[in-house]
Design a protein that fits this description.
mainly alpha
Length: 71
């Protein structure tokens, strides 16, 4: 799950390279921060992301503040 403003073509290009190296498909979902916050209110799936996530890129503290701002 990718949260934020990201260029989907760039994400696809980079993930394609990784997929070729690991010989596995990577399924991803792209969501703006605003859409994620809106869906968090009504979606079990979005709430579970907060419980079971692995931050690969970004600042842990900013993500924590983002989470707190949604609750």
């Amino acid at each position: 799950f990718i949260i934020g403003d990201a260029e989907e073509k760039e994400i696809y290009r980079r993930l394609k390279t990784v997929e070729e190296k690991i010989v596995k498909e990577i399924n991803y979902h792209l969501s703006s921060a605003a859409d994620f916050k809106k869906n968090l209110i009504k979606s079990f799936f979005h709430k579970e992301i907060l419980n079971y996530h692995l931050l690969l890129i970004g600042d842990k503290n900013k993500f924590r503040k983002f989470i707190k701002s949604t609750t």
